[in-house]
Specification:
The complex is a heterotrimer of chains A (302), B (326) and C (250). Chain A has helices at residues 2-32, 39-57, 60-81, 91-113, 139-161, 163-173, 175-180, 185-207, 218-232, 237-263, 268-293, and strands at residues 129-132, 135-138. Chain A is mainly alpha-helical and 302 residues long. Chain A has one domain (2-215). A two-stranded antiparallel ribbon of chain A has the order 1-2. Chain A is globular and about 65 Å long. Chain B has 326 residues and is an all-alpha fold. Chain B has one domain (25-253). Chain B has helices at residues 3-24, 28-53, 62-80, 98-120, 125-145, 171-193, 196-206, 208-213, 218-244, 254-267, 274-292, 297-310, 314-320; strands spanning 84-86, 92-93, 155-156, 246-247. Chain C has helices at residues 44-52, 74-80, 97-109, 123-135, 151-164, 181-194, 207-213, 231-236, 238-249; strands at 6-15, 18-28, 33-37, 59-64, 67-68, 82-85, 169-173, 200-203, 216-221, 224-229. Chain C is globular and about 60 Å long. The chains are: A mainly alpha (302), B mainly alpha (326), C alpha/beta (250). Chains in contact: A-B, B-C. The interface between B and C is medium-sized, with 28 and 39 residues.
Chain lengths: 302, 326, 250
């Protein structure tokens, strides 16, 4: 039972990471209509910036700041130099251009940092575990969940309570309208993109102490974030939150439970292998089921 | 003849000439490269049926490429290890016969493309891109975590599969097999796009509302194109496995899906030979840039970016001075 | 009295709080042009979309040739003989005019999934399509890409495609929109003849054309039919005059 609870928490923690990724993706889809494959690269940039800053200063908080700044800056540059030329193009051009950006980012980072993975330490203040009854859980992972909740609340406040939020919502509803409201669209788009990039960078930095920091780390997460966005409904932050938690928990619990369940009616070794194969497919099956039920996602527009 | 037709004939003749010339001058490696270009080009031509003619931006066609590859790998390794492929409900032996492998690859891909296409085509636009990607990823992870066929390490095909009495281990013979199949796939795609179905597919892309008002469901037309396209890509995949005598989850990776799209766009979307030209350029760039720097994907990315931003219509568009579909 | 070929009973459709269609009952008889007029936002286009199956009504039913068609989707309804022309011409811009029509011919024949024979050598198909292009007055422009046709020519292409479907009913959404006075006159003459091919449910803003063409007129205001009758009935109806014709008739 405690093992199960621990896995649920792991699922939540993973869902939190996915939310940080998916929120940026879904914002960029919603406001600019852009499909950005290079979102995973911004996650990687954040992780490397954090690792480099932590190595230089030994301060985790500074590492987080560095990750946010580096990812936001990289995002803003990419938006200004490349992506703003693509908003009016079809999705095919966007796919190819952002695919090219992945190559550039991945190879560029490999050039600078080399192929060996880097490691980030868990900050001393967050080391150790929290004990609740028989359950003990790493404090750091709990902190990630808290950060995710804080970001979700922050985004909600940003979108519903600020001037920028009004502009974002106007942009989602109608691009002509923001022009009519006298908003500088070019600047709004850069800000939105940088915001999404910063969230991806934050995710990358936070995951650093749990996984290794290496080239290509953003791609599996990117694809899972796509699944989240599809499940939640494109353009919906709320959908991204629900989808992320659903996907995070399904994936984690699937890996934990399926081999156990299958062990009931086959031998241990094949239960392990079949279980892990099925578990790795579980979120995609979840996506397929939701698509059959609601083709535009749980919180989709139509 | 239009400039595009001349270009098409030139590229096919050129590829053949490179392979023959390289073989005559004792450069089997170049023959190998030409074979690689022909096979990847074939996959691109297959994808183009869905992507270029049907407007279906599938980011998951690596799934079908890999399924073709695994069909070859699984059948061949079963035959080479003298193990039956399956024992239930009927005992099926493996095989090293290329035609049977090709047929299996094509049918398997078609059967898997049917549900994937049917689900993905419930949506469109950005959704379609992400969902096809996700399904391909599902198959990728399945291949990685399913230990029976090598898991992450893949499967080796010790001796290239056989076709009649031909010596398939000879690079030139294998090139000619691949080239002949490339011509076949190219011909079939060309015929299909000029048929009644081709008209309906063009309408499904350009104006689905009108197609519906004529009493034809765009869904059916698109699904057909998606499945046919998957089958062509699987054939290329089966050959690719034989070329490398190895199949691994890399063939299923999303990176490969991206590369297939690159071939199509580099050459020119909706052009019959565009993806072949794209694949040839890609293979050349890979060789050339790979010789210059270890970090060759960096300049490759920059070149691709420049093509998207400034050379719309791809290489064929540049040469013929016309933008996309006629 | 013959039976109506198309009958719409108590159709209702709401978008949120807006009742776009509020209990509409209408019918269309063989050989007639039944015009549907009403101010902007009266729900005319929404009504057409429900008849062709593009959107589902919340309540009510539609009968075609005495059979309910409520469960058929848009493609099925097209196949049984409901042909639609759009307010903005819907064509394949990258195909030539004749190819647009060829597709309509093959769709009507139910032979779309044929993969091998090139259409350029299918002389029967081409001849059939050319005949419909000629009927729509576009024979000379057959080889032109639809994208390069003028606004009026695209409208003609739409009609050629609709004719090629050999429908039992035409549903037309503002065929006069955007035409020159000259073009409107020719369209009026064309439609006047067309009613003998199949009856027409005509949504139109051009009152001159409507009064010249219609056998019957229904007036739709705020999603409700406030009057149905002959041209003379409608011209004389005081309710219609206040609600709609007001300034024009004064």
């Amino acid at each position: 039972m405690t093992l199960f609870l621990e896995q649920v928490l792991n699922g939540l923690q993973f869902g939190t990471m996915l939310f940080l990724m998916a929120a940026g993706l879904t914002l960029v889809f919603g406001v600019m209509g852009l499909i950005n494959l290079a979102h995973g690269s911004l996650y990687m940039v954040g992780a490397f910036a954090a690792a480099a800053a932590a190595a230089a200063t030994g301060n985790f908080l500074l590492a987080i700041v560095a990750a946010l700044a580096a990812a936001a800056l990289a995002g803003a540059i990419v938006e200004i130099v490349v992506l703003r030329r693509l908003y009016r193009r079809d999705h095919l051009d966007q796919v190819l251009a952002t695919f090219a950006l992945i190559l550039i980012f991945s190879e560029g980072v490999r050039w600078i940092f080399g192929s060996f993975p880097l490691y980030l330490d868990v900050p001393r203040a967050l080391a150790g575990a929290v004990h609740v009854g028989p359950l003990s859980y790493p404090l750091y992972r709990l902190a990630i969940i808290v950060v995710g909740i804080a970001v979700a609340v922050g985004l909600w406040l940003l979108i519903n309570r600020t001037r920028l939020g009004v502009q974002i919502r106007a942009g989602e509803a109608d691009r002509e309208m923001i022009a009519a409201l006298g908003i500088d669209i070019a600047r709004l788009y850069t800000v939105v993109f940088a915001l999404g990039a910063a969230l991806a960078g934050l995710a990358g930095a936070l995951i650093g102490p749990i996984q290794s920091v290496q080239v290509g780390m953003g791609e599996p997460v990117l694809i899972m974030a796509f699944v989240v966005v599809v499940i939640g409904g494109i353009g919906s932050i709320r959908g991204a939150l629900v989808g992320a938690i659903l996907v995070g928990v399904t994936d984690t619990l699937g890996r934990f439970l399926l081999p156990i369940v299958l062990g009931g009616f086959m031998d241990q070794a094949s239960a392990m292998s079949v279980g892990s194969a099925l578990a790795s497919m579980s979120i995609y099956i979840l996506m397929a089921v939701i698509l059959v039920w609601r083709p535009t996602g749980l919180m989709g527009a139509h | 003849m239009s400039r595009e037709t001349i270009l098409n004939v030139a590229i096919l003749a050129g590829l053949l000439a490179v392979a023959l010339g390289a073989w005559a001058s004792g450069e089997p490696f170049v023959v190998q490269l030409a074979t690689r270009a022909a096979i990847l080009g074939m996959a691109g031509v297959g994808l183009n049926l869905a992507l270029g003619y049907g407007g279906l931006v599938s980011f998951g066609h690596a799934a079908f490429f890999g399924i073709g590859g695994y069909a070859a790998g699984i059948l061949a390794s079963a035959a080479q290890n003298y193990e039956p492929l399956m024992t239930w409900p009927v005992e099926l032996p493996g095989t090293t016969s290329m035609p049977i492998i090709w047929l299996t690859a094509v049918i398997a891909a078609g059967l898997i493309a049917l549900p994937i296409g049917a689900l993905s085509l419930r949506t469109g636009g950005v959704h379609f891109i992400m969902i096809t990607l996700a399904f391909a990823q599902m198959i990728y992870y399945f291949a990685i975590s399913w230990p029976a066929y090598g898991g992450e390490d893949g499967l080796s095909i010790y001796v290239r599969n056989s076709l009649g009495t031909l010596d398939t281990m000879s690079p030139l013979t294998f090139f000619l097999i691949a080239f002949a199949l490339l011509l076949l796939v190219l011909g079939l795609v060309l015929v299909a796009t000029r048929s009644r179905f081709g008209l309906a597919l063009a309408m499904a892309r350009q104006n689905p509302l009108r197609l519906t008002s004529m009493g034809v469901r765009p869904f059916n037309v698109r699904l057909t194109a998606f499945v046919l396209s998957a089958m062509a890509v699987a054939l290329a995949g089966a050959l690719y496995a034989d070329l490398n005598r190895f199949v691994s989850p890399t063939m299923l990776s999303w990176h490969l899906s991206g590369e297939l799209i690159v071939f199509v766009i580099l050459g020119g979307v909706g052009r019959p030979c565009g993806p072949l030209i794209g694949a040839c350029i890609y293979v050349l760039l890979e060789q050339w840039l790979g010789g210059l720097t270890d970090y060759w994907q960096f300049p490759l990315g920059v070149i691709l970016l420049l093509v998207v931003l400034f050379a719309r219509g791809g290489v064929i568009g540049l040469v013929t001075g016309r933008n996309a579909n006629a | 009295m013959p039976k109506p070929i198309l009958r719409i009973n108590g159709l209702e459709k709401s978008f949120g709080a807006l009742k776009a269609t509020n209990g509409v009952t209408l019918d269309l008889y063989p050989g007639e042009i039944h015009a549907l007029i009403g101010p902007n936002g009266a729900g005319k286009s929404t009504l057409i979309k429900q008849i062709v199956g593009e959107i589902r009504p919340d309540a009510g039913s539609i009968d075609f040739e005495g059979q309910p068609i409520d469960r058929l989707d848009a493609a099925d309804r097209a196949r049984i003989g409901l042909a639609r022309t759009f307010q903005v011409s819907q064509i394949a811009p990258e195909l030539s005019a004749v190819r647009n029509v060829m597709l309509a011919v093959e769709a009507r024949e139910g032979r779309v999934f044929r993969f091998f024979r090139p259409v350029s050598r299918d002389l029967d198909l081409i001849a059939a399509a050319m005949a419909f292009l000629h009927d729509a007055g576009l024979g000379e422009r057959a080889a032109i890409h639809a994208a390069d046709l003028s606004h009026g020519e695209r409208r003609q292409l739409e009609f050629a495609m609709a004719l090629a479907l050999k429908p039992k009913v035409f549903l037309m959404d503002e065929p006069m929109a955007g035409l020159s006075p000259d073009g409107s006159k020719r369209m009026t003459a064309f439609l006047s003849e067309l009613r003998h091919t199949a009856p027409i449910l005509l949504v139109e803003h051009d009152m001159e054309a409507v009064f010249a063409l219609a056998d019957r007129i229904s007036v739709l205001v705020y999603g409700q039919v406030i009057a149905t009758g002959t041209v003379a009935d409608i011209r004389a109806n005081p309710e219609v005059r206040t609600a709609y014709l007001g300034d024009e008739a004064a």
